[in-house]
Design a protein that fits this description.
14 helices; binds FE2/S2 (inorganic) cluster
Length: 446
Amino acid sequence: FDDPDKLVDTDRGFVSREIFVDPDLYKEELEKVFTRAWLFIGHESLIPKPGDFYTTRMGEESVILCRDKQGIVHAFLNSCRHRGMKVCRYESGNTSLFTCPYHSWTYTTDGKLQGVPHFRTLYEGLDREANSLVSVAKLAIYKGTIWATWDKDAPDFITYLGDAKIHLDQALDCRDGRSGGSEVVGVHKWIFPANWKFAAENFLGDTYHNPSHRSVDLIGIGPSAAAGKKGRRDDELEKAQHVWISFPEGHGVHSAIQPEENEYIESFLDNPVLEQYFRHCFEERKRRLGEQARLLPFVGTIFPNTSYHGRQPRGLCAWHPHSPTSTEGWRFFLVDADAPQEAKDYLRRYYMRYSGPAGMTEQDDMENWLYATAASMGTVARRYPFNYQQSLGAWTKDHALGGTVSLQITEEIARGYYARWKSYLRGAAWDELLGVGGNLPQRAAE
Ligand code: FES
């Protein structure tokens, strides 16, 4: 596979199945995508106090996310500099030191090698600084979310986000339009036998797959606007103008724009606390954001493996690769930190019911991803690429929304995503990866 152009042909709309199953290509994308791109690694609310830590992942690597004694947030490779043992085997907690279980080297919460047993007799001249935990090259905290990259030459995180920022903001900000202010109310983690890109692509705005969720649509909590008469959320989506947007950095979103005249729809008449909270959020958001409040985030993927649900459920998903055909999904559910406890509890229950490994929609999706992966592994199956020709050429440039916009369901976003994936595999410079060069922005400007 020397030539990535043979794997991804976005002009004609074909992507080889090999990129979803081949072990060599998988190794290459770990090296060329996951060591360069900005990756979502956690949320500040998971480590609020000095000494708090949360073990996370970047690609296949285990990473310690930690707040040091001074309150500064760090991310380190979770691997001892002596023989590589995981220095932290817990999911989360609070500590003043990380003590390696193997031979007891100890590291401070800012990653420095502090203690080495028999240091004076056995390790004369050991350079402790050079044997600190390996830190990420760059770390960014954005509206409570924490992102990191191993590439010291990577652009800053906001530049990396590009125009996808205004859409991601809608998922991270409070329901009443205040900037930031969210907290994680729970994290679901589970492993499924499918390539990680199936999940990432699904959230780019693959609205075409909604028939998969017919059962939840029929009971009124599904993603399809066809279920519009059964719930507040779907009523809003039914009346809105839906937009599918591809960004030159490889990100993609499906958002919706509400009509100018839109009013709060009473939804919780049997629960005054919830009714008051959601009404307040709706009206306050409109007052604060004006025209911008009409933009409803639905789903999106920030290249390569971070997806979000913008409204209900609201949260971020990281699709961590384990192998070409195995992925660990992490869903971080978000609520407003200062919401009434009753609203937090209601949303937490809703999120669990709707998504996650035991939720009603995620199971539909996973069944598709794992069968598609399994059915693409055969010698004959691998000769036939996937078809990405939907709505070829049906896009326009919209400066208010950013990116390349389609008003109809489109695989243009997936084509853009795989065009960018191909650029990473070619080892493209950051100028190209951010859309200054490459085929996608040129097409958008035509
Ligand atoms: Fe950690 Fe030896 S592997 S102290």
